[in-house]
Amino acid sequence: MNSSPPEIPESYSVPEYFDDNVLLIVSNPNNSSIQVQYDVGDKYNRYSWIGLFDINESDNRKYLKYKYINNSKGIIEFNSLCEGQYDIRYFPTNERNIAASSIVLGTPIQIKEVIQEGQTLKIEIENPRKRDICLQLYKKGIKDRVTVLYETNKCSEWSNSTSFIINIKGIFGNYTLIPKYKTSYFTVWRYYGIFLIPMRCYISQGAKDIQF
Known about the structure:
Layout (H helix, E strand, L loop, with lengths): L22 E8 L2 E7 L9 E6 L10 E4 L4 E6 L5 E8 L7 E7 L5 E7 L2 E7 L6 E8 L5 E9 L6 E7 L6 E17 L3 E11 L3 E4 L1
Antiparallel strand pairs: 1-2, 2-5, 3-4, 3-6, 6-7, 8-9, 9-12, 10-11, 10-13, 13-14, 13-15
């Protein structure tokens, strides 16, 4: 079985959905773990792996965690996770994924209020866990997959909500507003060898559609 971190060429970075012959059953035994029961049939080889992604991640090279699988059928777990919305994607090789399944871990935070005043948006988000939040504004795309348009970081305050003010000058059309928890996961990257380093991650929470 391979042990090196998966390296996907840019030409294969766009997610694909779905192969009916691949079975992925995902569950959350607790609010910090995701269990994946898989049966990939003849789509298995010694390079096959399963990746953990933010549910809105549109680049397969940006996995949060990964695990190679030993055979065509089995169970794996991803542990020590932040609450939020995730995608589990199966890769027969380091090319395109051929199947995916999504899951919500815990109770994602929600956008409490959005008020547009001229060319600014005032946004209030429930933040009971007082985590750092990254707020991203996406322009809607094909199949509701979206691309990042604007991002700002805001540390949580010592209250149960976090407030943002965003300048929306020159922005028109249909968008999706997504708050994300900012956290760090340990993953393996190749850089003059193999090192275990913390990687900054943004985990999607409850989204809200808005129109300007």
